[in-house]
Amino acid sequence: MNKYLERLYNGIIKENPTFILILGMCPTLAVTTSVSNAFGMGVSTMAVLILSNLIISLLRKVIPDKVRIPAYIVVIASLVTVVELLMQAYARSLSASLGLYIPLIVVNCIILGRAEAYAAKNPPLLAVADGLGMGLGFTIALSLIGLFRELIGNGTVLGFQVMPESYVPVAIFTRAPGAFIVLGALIAVLNALKIKNNSAKKVEGCNGDCCHCSSACETPDKKKEVE
Amino acid sequence: MSGLALLLVGAALVNNVVLSQFYGLCPFLGVSKQTKTAFSMGAAVVFVITISSAVVAAIYKLVLVPLNLTFLKTIVFILVIAGLVQFVEMFLKKFSKPIYNALGVYLPLITTNCAVLGVALTNVQKEYTILEGIVNGFGTAIGFLIAIVILAGIRERMDNKAIAKPLQGMPIVLFASALMAIAFSGFAGII
To answer: Is the pTM of this model over 0.95?
Structure first.
């Protein structure tokens, strides 16, 4: 596979920052009360992530190793300030509903994490692809959570009434507890799918005859010992 | 005085930093496996947020506002907080070994705890005085301490229970946090 596409796939599916790496939880839970808020947050984080990956990758040979983290933080904080000011100028309602979470993009662990783990070691174009992949993965995850919360908590999607009129919205889903429940349920569903896939693969390998397969019977015990 | 007390209770319980504001979730979910470590983390957060509220508020009022540089607040705050955390760490290492041994590992992690930056920005946004800012910071951090210790207690209890496979790990912790958030929303009436 093309290595740029591989970066995108990695960010969106394989190492999805929200569902697999469980990073950047604060905005994930706080601003997903509706699809439009979640999408706005995802896109602004993605913009900062792509640009910070690009700049840090370009500067990777200039920044001394000892002060790299403060240097990354300055780059990221400057970009976040730019995004914040642009939003106040051109997207006032979004900036009002996202509030403090825009400046808090600075401490989103996804951005510093990608700078340290990827952008500091790879050429600019790949770093941009990585930022795009991670940003898309984050945006998709946030929008998905926002979709469920808005649908159940308000009966709407993007402000349009979707549920029948007789539906009584479960208001708790637009409040704090709903965020935890929806994220927990989504991760549980993904885990269940993964377990199903893994067991399907095992059946292929040994015809499902687990008891006569010595490796299968030993592994759980070995695992326990390791633990 | 009663205003300050209300601010303290409000910050600690009613608008609990983790369960209703969603600041500082990474350590809340990450360092809450045991009550002991959770308490150390919470104590380190109380320490850092209280000091940083004071320092950041002073820098904002005495440097940024007179120079008309308030648009730089995000950059300045995060650098001040990162520097302050390092300084606190060095100071404790030199002058107070027991506290350093208890909190040392957790101090560097706090720089990326968004509760610290969140409190600093809230104090500016709500135009608190320096004293109000410190009280708000202290209350917020106490709220964090309460929440993380309770969650760690719940997680210790869940450790040996039979939990459905897909729910193991993060999902069950998120569900427990959801129930805690519902419980904490009961505090909404007291102010």
So the answer is: no
